[in-house]
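User: Please predict structures.

Assistant: First:
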Amino acid sequence: MTLEMVFVLSMIILMFAALLLELARPDIIVFSALVIFVLTGLLTPEEAFNGFSNQGMLTIALLFIVAGAVQKHGIIDRIMKKWLNKGKHVKGSMIRFFIPLSLSSAFLNNTPIVVTFTPMIKKWCEEKGIAPSKFLIPLSYFTILGGTITLMGTSTNLVVHGMLLDFDLEGFSLFQLAIVGIPITIVGFLYLFTVGYQLLPSNRGFRDQIQSDTKEYMAEMTVKKEFPHVNKSVQEAGLRELKGLYLVEIIRENERISPVKSTTIIKAGDRLIFTGLISTIAELQHMRGLQLETGSHLELDDLENSHVELVEAVVSHQSSLLSKSIKQSQFRSKFDAGVIAVHRNNERIKSKIGDIILRPGDVLLLLAGSDFIRTYQQSSDFYVVSSLDTPSNLQGNQKKGLFSIGVLLLMIFMVTVGWLSMFKAMLLAVLVLLVTKTITAEEAKKNIQFHVLLLIASAFGIGMAMTKSGLAKWIADGMLSIGEPYGIVVLILLVYLLTNIFTELITNSAAAVLMLPIGIEMASSLGVDYMGFAVTIAIAASASFITPIGYQTNLIVYGPGGYRFIDYIKVGTPLSLLVMIVTVSIVNVVWF
C-alpha cells in the first residue's frame, strides 16, 4: 500500500466511525471527509465536487419534485385507503394493500410513501384490534423491495447509473433491474406473510401506550407559591397515591431528588417529574398551584379547542435537533409547539423533558397548533407521522392530482421506448408541472431533500479518492485473491456482502458509491461484464433490513411501531439472506 492509499483508508475508517457514533448528520460527516481530501491536495476541486453535477444525482433531485407533485394531491393515498378497507380478513387486506404499494414505490420516492401510510395502517390496525407492529416493518421492507424494480425506484439505482455514465460505461435501462427486483419482491412477500409475520413483535400502538402505559412517558409540573401543600410532605400533598401516575423525581434548583420518598417536603419552585397517563396529568394540572410545563403557550385544556391537537413526530436521522437537548434546540420558539412526552424504544428516559438529548427515531408527543402538520410535513427535522386526535385530511385538487399522475406515466413511457433519457424525461416532467402550476416553485424547493443530495454528491468524491489513490484497485485485487479460486459466484457473494454491510452501517447511496469502483475494477481484472457487479451493488445497497439506521424508511416506523433494535435483526436477517441468495443466483445466470 502507498502512503496515499493508507491516508484514504484511514479517513474512510474515521468517517465510518463518526457515522456509527452519530457524531453529526451523515451528510455533514461525509462532506467533511471530502473537504479534507481537497485541503490535503489528494483531490482537485473539480474532482471532488464533480458529484454535484453528476447526472444521477441531478435526476434524484428532479425525482423528488415529480414524486412530491404526485403525492401532494393525495389521489394515490385515497385509492389505497379505499382498497385497504375492502378486505374482510387482516392478512388478506394487507396483501391487497402491499402489492400495489410495492408497485407504486417502483416509481415514487418511498420515504413520503412510508410517512403517508404509517398513520393510515396504524389507525386501521387499531380499528381491527391488532398490533400495528405486525405491519409497520413490512411497510418499510415492501417499499424498499419495490424500489429495486426500476431505475427510478430508489436513489441508489440512480446513483449507480450516474456513476456508470461517469466511467463512460452504459447505465441501466428503466426496467433492467426488474430481472432481480421482481423475484426478490415476491420472495419478500412470501417470507413476510409467513415466517416474518410470526417473528414480528405484538406491540401496542402509540395511542394505546399513551392511554395505558404508566412507565414510559413523562411530564413536568412546576409548584407555584399558591399550591396549598407547599412545605408539606409528598404524602400529605396527595402526590403519592395517584391513579396511573408516579412521581419519579423532584428538581430543586441544582439538586435532583430521586427516588422520591413519601416524607420528601414539597417546596415552591420545585419541578415535579411524573410518568403516567396523559389523561391523569391533565386532571392533575387542575390542582391550584401546579402548572404543566409544555414548553409552549398551549395547554392540554386547549385540546377541546379545534385549534390545538396532539401530534406524534419521529426525529429524523438528519435532524438539526440531534445531539442537543430539547431546551438547547429552542424547540418552542422554533416550531411553536411544546414537547409533552418523549418515547424511545419502549424505555423510560430518566431526565427532565428539557434536558433530554434527542436521538434518531425518538418519538415526540407534541402539543401543537392545528396547522403544525401542514407546516412541518416536509421538514427535514422530523417525520410528522400523524395527529393523535384528528386524522389528517387530504385536501388535494383531484384534477391536478390526476394530471400529475398522467405526467409521470408519460415520462415512464418516453423513457421505456427510448425517446428520452431518464434525466431529460425528468427535466421535461418538472417543467410541465411548474408551467401548469400543478406544483409551485416553493413546493418544488421543499420537496427536494438537500441533505440527501449533499450526502450523495460528497460520496461521489470519496469514491473518486478511492479510485485515484489506487485503494479501490487494491481492495478489488484482495477480494479477487480470496474469491477467484472458488469461482465467480463467490466473488459476487463477497461484493454483495461487503456492500450490504456498508449500507447497514452508513447509508445506502454512500455504500453504492464506495463499492462501485471496486466492482468495476474486479470486472476489468476478470475480463467479464461489469453490469453483473453493478446490479449486485445496486440491489445490495438497497436491501437494508437488519438495522433501523441503514435506510430512512426503517427509521420512520421505528418509534411508531414501538420496535427495538433487536426486532430488525430478528426479522431482517432471514430476509437479507433470502434476498442475497436470489440476487447472487440470478446475476450469475444472467450476466456471467
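Second:
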Amino acid sequence: MNYEIKIASELNIKSHQVKATMDLLDEGGTVPFISRYRKEATGSLDEVQVAAVRDRLQQLRDLDKRREAVLKSIEEQGKLSPELKKAVENAETMAKLEDIYLPYKPKRRTKATIAREKGLEPLAERIFQQESIDLEEEASQYINEEKEVKSVEEALQGARDILAEWINEKADLREKMRKLFLEEGNFTSKVIPGKEAEAVKYKDYFDWTEPIKTAPSHRVLAMRRGEKELFLMLDSCPEESDALALIERVMIDSQRSNESVEQVKLAIKDCYKRLLKPSMETEVRLLTKKKADEEAIRVFAENLKQLLLGAPLGEKSVMAIDPGFRTGCKLVCLGPQGQFLHYESIFPHEPQKRASEAGMAVKGLVDKFSVQAIAIGNGTAGRETEAFVKSLGLPKSVVVTMVNEAGASIYSASEVAREEFPDLDLTVRGAVSIGRRLMDPLAELVKIDPKSIGVGQYQHDVDQNALKNALDDTVMSAVNGVGVEVNTASKQLLTYVSGLGPVLAQNIVEFRNQHGPFKSRSQLLKVPRLGEKAYEQAAGFLRISQAKNPLDASAVHPERYALVESMAKDLGASVDDLVKSEELRNRINLKNYVSEQVGLPTLQDILDELAKPGRDPRESFEVFQFEEGVNSMEDLRVGMKLPGVVTNITAFGAFVDVGVHQDGLVHLSHLADRFVKDPNEIVHVNQKVEVTVVEIDIPRKRIGLSMKSDPFAERGKKMEKSAKPAKKEEPQGSMAEKLAMLKGKFR
C-alpha cells in the first residue's frame, strides 16, 4: 500500500509532506521537534497534522500486519485463489478484511459444523439454488439413523443451519448490514424493572430511543455506563423487518416462489437472530464506543492543554494554605524557585477558633519570608480562609488568590511527592503543591496523573490506552511549547521534553546535582546516555537562562547557531547585539540566508525568537476575586450575577466555580446569546467569566448558570406554550442530568 498517497488524500495535504513526515518519524523524530524544527521538510505541517500522519500511519501498518496474517492462514488451508488474494489485498478497512476472512477463520464446533458431519451440505446446496423441487422427497434421502438424522424436519433443520452460516459469512451482505445498523439503527435504553430507585441518576435513559448516527459522545457513554452498572438494558439495532428485508433482497431470487425459497427465508430469520444481529450489534457498539471515546478524549485533551498553559505567577516568594476547619489550615512558605522553607498549622476557624493567634502567625511569616503572594486552596474552608487572610490588613503588594486544588491530594500521596519530601506529612505536601501550582501550573501539574486533575468527561469509561496516548501528547505539546529551564526543572517536567523520557530526565537531574548548573546546551552531551539523536530532539526546547551564549536561553536550535552568528557577522555585530537591537534585526534580509537545508519558515522563526529569547508564551497572571459574601450555596439567589472561573468543559456546556464549593453548569444553550455548537468556541479552562444564577437546588447540590445577556427572556415564551403538549425532553437538554455531573456521577 502506498501510505503517503492514501494519507495525503485523507488529510488533504501533499504526498511529499506525508513522505517527509513518515521518514522523520521513522528516524525517531517527535511530533514537537518535527513541527518546530523541520518545517522545510514537511511544508510547515503543525503538531496536529504531524500527529495525524503518525496515527494514521500506525493504523495502516496494523492493517497490513493483519492482512499478512490472514493471507498466511488462508494459504495454509490451501484455499487462497488469485481472486481471494486480490480481495484481501484490496480490503481498505479492518472490518472489510475480517468479513473476507470470516469463512476461512478457524471456528469452534457450530450447528453448521454438526450438520455437515451429518452429510447435509448437499441438501443445503440444493435448497440454496431455490429451484422448485419436491422438498420432502429430497430431504428424505438424508435420513440416516447412524448420523442421527431421524426425520425430514431434522434434515431440513440441519440444511438451514448450514444456510444460515453461509448467509452470515457473505462479505457484501455484512457490509450492507453494517451500513444499515449505523445509518438506520437506534440506541434503545430501558431501566431494568425494580431498579428505578437505585438508578435515579440515569432517569433520563429509563425509556429513551435515539438514532445511532446522531447520538453524541456523552449520551453513548452514559447509557453504556448505566448498562455496565446493571441499571439499564441497552439495544442498538435497526427495525428487524428492515434488516430481514435487506437480507432477502440480497439472498432471495425475487422471480421465484416455492418451498426452497421458504426454507431460505427461514434460514435468513435464524441467521439474523442467532448470528448476524449479535455480530453486527457487537461491531456497531465497538464502532460507536470508539467514536464516543475519541470525542470524550478530545474534550479532555483540550481542557487539559488549557489548564496546563494557565498563566504562571512566576518566581515569587509564596505562602500556600491548604484550608480546613476541624484539622486546621496547613501553611507552607516557598522560595522563588518553589523550594520548601517553612511549615506550620493554624486554626482560624471553628471549632478551635484561634483566629488571633493564626493572624499573628500569617503576618509574621509574610514579613519573615518576604511573601509576595498567598495561594489558598479552593476546597473545604477555602472561601472562609480567603476572607480571614484578607481581613488581616496585609500590605497591598501581597497578592491573595484562590487556587484550584484538584489533584493536590493525589500528588501528596504519590511516589513523586515522597521522593521530593520524604520527611513531610501528606497534608504538607498538598499545601506545597497548591503554592507551586500558582507559581507555575505546568511544572506542577505534570507530576499528577491527568485523570486526577478534574477536567475530563467519562475518563474512566473510555479506552485507557487511547486516553493515555492523547494526554501524553497534550502534556508533551504544552511542555515543549513553553520550553523548560534545564537548571530548575523537575525530573517529571524533563520527562516530557522531546527526545528525553524518564531515564534521560533522571540522568540530567543527577548530573546537575553532581556538577552544578548547566552552563551551556552543549554540556548536555556529557550527560550519561544522552547521545546526538536525543540532543537533536531536545536541545531546542531546553533553556539555560544564565548561559554565556544568549541563544541557549532561546528556542533557536543549536544546529542554527552558526547561521545566526553569520547574520551578526554580516552586520558587524555580535549575537548579543542582535538580541538587544531591533534596528539591527530589521536590517536582516532573510532571503540572503535561504539554503537547501534552511528556508524562510525557519529563518522567520529564528528572527522572531531573537526578538523575544526565552519569553514565556503563556498569558500574564491576573488576580481573580470571587464575590465577597458569597461563600456557600445558601448565599446564592436566582438572578444574582457573579464572577467565576471555568473549571471544566464538556460537550454540553461548561462548569464554573463561583466560590461556593460547588461548581455550577452553564449549559450549551446558555453560553451565549447565539446558537453554540461547541463550547470551546466561547470559553476555555481557567477563563474568568461573569455568570447569572438561573437555578439552585441545594438538596442535590446543583447550580444552573447562564452567560446570556438576558437568561430569563425565554421563560415568558415558554410559559405561553405550556398549554401545548410537550415534546419528550432530550437528555442533552436536561439541566438536571448535566448538573448530576457536579457530584461526579458520570465522571
